[in-house]
Amino acid sequence: MKQILDHPWDITETDALALQKRLSLKVIKQDHFLEINYVAGIDVAYSEYTSQLFAAVVVFNAKTLEVIESVVAEDAIHFPYIPGLFSFRELPPIIKALKLLKNTPDLIVCDGQGIAHPRRFGLASHLGVLFDVPTIGCGKTRLLGDYIEPGKMRGERSPLVDSDEEIGSVLRTQNHIKPIFVSIGHRISLTTACEWILKISPRYRLPETTRQADQLVNKALYVLNSKQKN
DNA sequence: GCGACAG
DNA sequence: ATCTTGTCGC
């Protein structure tokens, strides 16, 4: 798929912070798309000794949840893990993978936050702005914000709040199962984002998009590890 | 100064 | 992210 905006990735922490503040102005927090036929999921895994990263993208038919296409890309780690600057670590391999895609996703679900971020520019928003594609941030844990426990049933949610601003939803995707953290990435409203997450999470806590991408990326790691032993 | 802190 | 065993339940 096509990237409409780019910037250097080997930058200092200070420059990364400034870049986030500048690009965060471009985030669109309302529904801004026509039809969503293809939904994609992304996940990244790390190789212990080779300091390599693998990113997988799996594209689904949004209506039937059948897998349409999947790709994997590898890259070298060139940015440390710093909470709040996560995208500078994982986006390089993700961008490589997206460029291998033959189909163009209408919506991308990311492993991590969207605007539920100190500068309102988490991984999902960063990706959305660079490709000008609708994205949703879907995290297993919280980066920041306060919330009260949502109801115990699937579909119930409570607001995630930071300095009097609603930055996301704590959403229960299965009855009596620990909720997940959903936030706007780009070109989508919070309500629509939650509806989509529920739609693509028919059976487990995490969306099928994330689960399939996770399986694929770990398969790639397994292959790599096998080669290194021989 | 003391915690908190996406993956 | 990754390191790690068994175990409870459908």
TrEMBL record:
Gene transcribed to yield this protein: nfi
Organism name: Paenibacillus terrae
CDD domains assigned: Endonuclease_V
Protein origin, superkingdom: Bacteria
Site (Interaction with target DNA): Y81
UniProt-recorded name of the protein: Endonuclease V
One GO MF term: single-stranded RNA binding
Entry-linked Gene3D superfamilies: archaeoglobus fulgidus dsm 4304 superfamily
Record-stated family: Belongs to the endonuclease V family.
Keyword vocabulary terms for this entry: Cytoplasm, DNA damage, DNA repair, Endonuclease, Hydrolase, Magnesium, Metal-binding, Nuclease
Function: DNA repair enzyme involved in the repair of deaminated bases. Selectively cleaves double-stranded DNA at the second phosphodiester bond 3' to a deoxyinosine leaving behind the intact lesion on the nicked DNA.
One cellular component term from this protein's GO annotations in UniProt: cytoplasm
Localization of this protein: Cytoplasm
Record-linked NCBIfam families: PRK11617.1
Record-linked InterPro entries: Endonuclease-V
Main location: cytoplasm
Cofactor(s) of this protein: Mg(2+)
Chain sites annotated for binding Mg(2+): D43, D111
EC number(s) recorded for this UniProt protein: 3.1.21.7
